Amino acid sequence: MCSIERRVQLQQCFRCSSYDHKRECEGPDRTKLCQRCGGENRRAKQCHNRRRCLLCNKDDHSSGSGRCGNFRAALMKERSEREATGF
Q1: Mean pLDDT across 24-46
Q2: SUPFAM superfamilies under this entry (predicted)?
């Protein structure tokens, strides 16, 4: 018998890419930065630079990757909140 787990989809701030808020952002404006490398005025689809996370500044992954400690922390928080509410 297999178990089914509800998929968790995290909400991310469009301005700073943080997971801890969606409105009233006071973080840095990252809307014009490449989501792959963090470079200015680039699109991730056209970028060939090394990956660099906008949130934790590590070079081994892009923003939103499962390798990001910020992403994993937000995911665990969301899962525990869902378990607490039964949703």
Answers
A1: 88
A2: Retrovirus zinc finger-like domains
